[in-house]
Structures are given as structure tokens and as C-alpha cells.
Amino acid sequence: MGEKGDRHKKDVYLLSSSSMINDIGSEMITPILPFYVVALGGSGFAVGTLSGLREGLASLFKILGGWVSDRIGKRRIFVFIGYFLSFIFRASLFFANSWKAVLTFVSFERVGKVRDAPRDAMIASYGKHRGRNFGINQMMDTLGGVIGIIIVIFLFWKFNFDFKSIVIIASLITLLSLIPPLFVKDIRTAKTKKNIFQGIKQTNKKLKYFVLIASIFTLANFGINMFLLLKAKEITGSMIAALGMYAFFNVAYAVFTVPFGNLSDKIGRKKVLLLGYVLFLGLAFGIIFFSSIFCLILAFIIYGIVLAITQSNQRAFASDLSGKMKGTSIGFFHFTTGIVNIPAGIIAGILWDVNPVIMFVYLSAIALLAVILLCTLREGEGYKR
């Protein structure tokens, strides 16, 4: 592989280790948020808004972090700052005593996402195997989710911890994510004098079209796991049982991410992403008829596979199509697909309050549109690696 290749591989694993540690803390809190919101008087609208805001507001800071890292020609400092901010605002959830306060503090916590575009730009620069490298990052991130959900189930079941106690423990774990970036060699790039709007305007037209498709898909795939958790608790009558099902989601996500990343390196991103889009379409429509514990476990597993196929490969695809202002281009992808989460979550939450079946029919229709648009995408230079 050579000394340079070994260095790059090491840095991929160091950056991914931070993602894993941070996600342990994140996934100790995320799966219990819908139950906590409902317990504090929130409705499906509140849960949908929570889900949308988490990613939507994060997108604002992703593009900002990407552009500023291009502006100063440095990446690593933003990774470190991002994890530190996540620690600070995640800990602030301790003071939330209403569902509106939960939404507020969860939104603040997403400021830490300023790290994502600079980190992805670093990973994209580590050789040509972007599908594999992003797959490793996503796998370790999701492995942290598996560990986090196991810890929270144990704390609820064995010690009967409350939400605020879990927030404290999760925040302390998040603090450890600051260590690995200290050993990563920074990626220095030529400084750009272009402002953020000039950078976005000059992004590849192919990237813009792909971002459009990914944004439409995000309208459906905004994070239905929170609604699956509510449905699981409704059927089982137990929050711990619902969290156990959620663990299947994270395991599937972690196991299949790297294989599908490698596959996209070999046969092209479009073919692999099309599989993920179609699988989500089948899941969204199939959930309408799911009413047993077995079917719900299957739904969590399939959704984990869907994200394993789509999340890291969409990031790799966006990286393939990025130009010299890689941080800005990747930030533009994160921003556009992320901001869509806000209306997506709100609309889904309103439809859930009317009737969950209507919500899943709506998600199926949007997913079908995304599949059709992805089929129209012409492969060419920059699409197939």
C-alpha cells in the first residue's frame, strides 16, 4: 500500500473512531427522544418536527464549516470544534423540562455538525476508494450507535435510570471523541477567496442535479426510525422492547455499510443507490401492512440496510462530483439534503396525527418519484468510479 496509503488508512480510522465515540453518546439519547417528547405532552407533530430540525438545522452548519475550511485551507480544526460543541449542547439537554425545550436544545446540539463537511473532504482526499473509506466511517459511526443503544437499554432495565441521568453519561462519553482528531494529519489546501455563494454557483452541474434527486429522496427518508419506535412501543407496550428492535436497525446499518461502499467503488454509485431507493420504497409501502412484532423487527433491519446503502454512498457520490472547493461542494450537498428534513419531518408529523397509514402512503409516493428521477440520471465521467 505504501507509506502514504498507510497514513491515509490510519487517518480514516482515527476520524471514524471519533464518529463512533460521538455516536455512542448520540444514540444513548436519540432513540428515547420520541418517548420523552410524548411524555412531556408532545404529539406526532412535535416528534416529526424534532426529527426534521435535527438534520435541517445541522445542514446550515455543515455548509458553513465546509466553506470556511476552504477559505482558510485547513480541515482538522473544524472536526475538533464540532465534537466539542456537540458535547456542550448535548449536555444542555439536562435542563430540558418541556417538549419545546427538548426541541430547542436538540437544535442547538446540531451546531456541532460544522465538522461534517471538512471531515468528509478529508476522507475524500484519501485515495480513490471513496466508497470504502466513507463506508468505514459510516460503519464505525453506526457501530457506536449499536453500543449506545445497548448501554441505554441496560441502564433502563438494570438501574432504571431516567432521561437526565442518561444525558449526563452520554455527554461524558461524547467528550472522549475529542481525542482521536489530535492524532490526524491535517489536510492543507489552497485557500480560496470566493465567497460561499460563488462557491455554490460554480459547483458541478452534475452535482446539482444529483443533489436535487437526493433532496427529493430525503423528503421521504427524513428519519422514519422515530415513528417506527412509536409504532413498536404501541404494539409491544414496552419502551425497552422498542429500543431492542432499534438495536436491530443499528446492527444492520453497521454490518452492510462497508460491503455496499466497496460495491459502489466497483460497479458505480448509481446502481447501488438505485437499489437503496427501491428498497426504501418497498419498506415505506410495506409498513402499512405491518402489525406484528416480527414484521416490525424486519422493518428496522430493512431500514438499517437502506441507510447502509444510501448514506455513505450519497456522500461518496457528492465527493466524486466535487471540484477544487471540495469542502464547499460537500457542504452544499449536506445543506440542501439536510434543510429538506425540516418540512419533511413537519409534514410527516402532521400526517401521522391524522393517520399513520396516510403518512406512509405519502412517503411511498415521494420515494417513487426519487426512484424515477434517479433512473433518468445519465452516467458519465464522475459517476462511475
Describe the 3D structure.
With 385 residues, this protein is mainly alpha-helical. It is 78% helix and 0% strand. The chain is built from 17 helices and no strands. α4 runs antiparallel to α5, α4 packs antiparallel against α6 and α13 (269-286) packs antiparallel against α17. Residues 381-385 have low confidence and may be disordered.
Q: For the report, how would you describe the main beta sheet?
A: none
Oligomer: single chain
Per DSSP, the total helix count is 17
State the distance separating the first and last CA atoms. 19 Å
Assigned CATH architecture: Up-down Bundle
Name a few traits of the molecule:
disordered C terminus; 385 residues; Growth Hormone, Chain: A; single chain; mainly alpha; 17 helices; 0% strand
Brief overview:
With 385 residues, this protein is mainly α. The protein is built from 17 helices and no strands.
Topology:
Elements: H1 2-29, H2 33-39, H3 44-72, H4 76-91, H5 99-109, H6 116-124, H7 130-159, H8 163-175, H9 196-201, H10 205-220, H11 225-236, H12 239-267, H13 269-286, H14 293-320, H15 326-339, H16 341-354, H17 356-376
